[in-house]
Description:
- The chain has 333 residues and is an alpha/beta fold.
- The chain has helices at residues 3-32, 83-100, 119-130, 146-155, 176-187, 195-200, 213-219, 222-238, 255-262, 272-282, 304-323, and strands at residues 47-50, 55-58, 68-76, 106-113, 135-140, 159-165, 204-208, 250-254, 287-291.
- The protein is elongated, with a radius of gyration of 22 Å.
Amino acid sequence: MDFSSIIITLIVYGVLAATSLLIILSAIIYMITNPFPLVERFKEEETFNDPRSKSKERFPNIHDSHSVHLSVVVPAYNEEERLSPMLDETIEFLERRIKENPSYKYEIIVVSDGSKDNTVKLAESYVEKYGCDKLRCLDLIKNRGKGGAVKLGILSSRGASILFADADGASKFEDLTKLETALKKITKYDPISQPDEISQSEAVIIGSRAHLEKESLAKRSIFRNILMYGFHFLVWLFTVKGIKDTQCGFKLFTRKAADRAFQSLHVNRWAFDVELLYIAQKLNIPIVEIPIRWTEIEGSKVTPVISWIQMGCDLGLIWLKYKIGAWKIKQEK
Length: 333
């Protein structure tokens, strides 16, 4: 047997071994995986503080009818330094909207994801100032990851439309109007004057930083750009097609779309956005990407190399688990 034949034989055996290993691994994953996510929620996390009555009140459920126009869910892990400016900007915008539309109602839910600093204390000070009808703090006693925090906040919300926005304030909150304009175009209903209709419609409007990519490329190192392009390629290859920026923390859902998409969400870490959009696409929920303003704020919790490796692994698992049927998407009855 000549050298080339030996090489070909080794390659064939290698492919067969890898295929066999993948089949065995897939079988194990299928047998030990729950097809639908189990929501971990401690009893202490089912209530929020009402500082005025000095009592604990129970959070509502996403399955309940809406009672406010907009819920803003803010996941926060050790965000005592960056949370105040974001909340101030958000409240100023929404209070201005109330002056223009007196019947308008909103709520902000700060989800402290097991914070070790004064994030909860800071959020509670806003609750005391503005009242728990407008602002609530969901204090998770155990860290879940950003996806887990957003999910529990969404499940506890009252809005006809629901926005999740990062605590760092990197996105300009007034760009919500851009997302609402797109929502109105898709659903044919106005989120300000027709909350009932919006609540029962289905749409996801996501803020996008894709138009800022050229400027960002010039600021990043070559290594970080390679990692970024690698991540985008894996997203396109394994999960979501047709969306340029899956990771921007500024996404608007109708209540029905949020209910359907989040009840099948498994991933609790950084790649949760990708699975969420993958689920929405599989459910044929309309998704629109809208350019927004964005400014990088110091103090990011994302570690470029480690976080992107984690996200890459999560993408592979998302693809594999849905491919072999270990994970399933809940359909309407």
